[in-house]
Amino acid sequence: MEEAAERGTIVQYLLSDAGQRSQWSKIVENLNEGDMLYFSHGFSVTFKDDTGVIPPPHVDVALVAPKGAGRSVRRNFLDGSGINASFAVHQDSTGRAYERTIALGIAIGAGYLFPTTFKNEVYSDLTGERGVLIGALSAIMEAQYNVLRKNGHSPSEAFNETVEELTQSLIRLVGENGMDYMYANCSTTAQRGALDWKDKFRDAVAPVFDDLYQSVVSGNEARITLEANSKPDYREQLEKELAAIRNSEMWQAGAAVRSLRPENWKKG
After folding, report:
1. Quick one: pLDDT at residue 266?
2. How far apart are CA 25 and CA 13, in angstroms?
3. pLDDT value, residue 178
4. Which residues are known to be catalytic?
5. What is the pLDDT of residues 41-64, one digit of tens each?
């Protein structure tokens, strides 16, 4: 078995989740003893009833999941800083799956690797991206922007107070040393108000997050994703949805505000 591991190939299966389902029959027939099947996400294996992705017993199966978008992973790799990632071994056929997985994490430039399982990775990832990381964040921004506009604030003022200050100042403080550090470096007025209101926001959205997590664990979110992303006109429909965001007043104001940043003065 050790000899097989030495000559085995690492098969990086990094297609989209819908793409992994559609191409699996071609991949599985070419997996040899001692190979490692490498994923960056636990989706296909966890939701095997919907994807049909069931690895054969004669291969290692593992994941290294960078905690960021592919664009950020590449940028950080080129900068030499790397990006944190989770890792998991789902199947150890060779007896060397763990060390091979750690080596993969190092190879892609992960600054820190933390253990997980395929299920935990995909449950947390799908919840996070639908929640705080993308879905909830964009919706909360939109809600605050609309309230400010409804009460007479200009588009640029509403955008600056909703998005620009967050992305260009406050979230960087959180990234540097944590949420308490951000609080400590705000005005006393901001500190008091934020501390008084944060629990109200938490309690208001907690039921939504409970619903979201159950939708993920049940496989409902996976089925929605696979159905939508497998449609032949998916790209066209996606562009319409993204264009609606891009062309909204809020994000047109954002484009104007970004163009006024000092680092962009000499561009164009």
Report:
1. 72
2. 13
3. 96
4. 41
5. 999 999 999 999 999 999 999 999
User: What is the amino acid identity at position 180?
Assistant: D
Give the H/E segment covering residue 102.
helix 97-107
Is 187 in a helix, a strand, or coil? coil
Second-level CATH architecture of 2-117: 3-Layer(aba) Sandwich (3.40)
Taking the alpha carbons at both ends of the chain, their separation in whole angstroms is 59
Q: Do β-strands 113-115 and 36-39 pair in parallel, antiparallel, or remain unpaired?
A: unpaired
Residue 249 CA, distance from chain mean position? 26
CATH class of the structural domain 129-264: mainly alpha
pTM of the model: 0.90
Domain boundaries in the chain? 2-117, 129-264
Token pair for 38: 């490498």
pLDDT at 238: 96
Other beta carbons less than 10 A from residue 137's beta carbon: 13
Sign of CA dihedral 81, 86, 91, 94: positive
What's phi and psi for 63, nearest 5 deg?
Answer: -135, 150
Query: Closest by alpha carbon to 175, among 21, 72, 33?
Result: 72
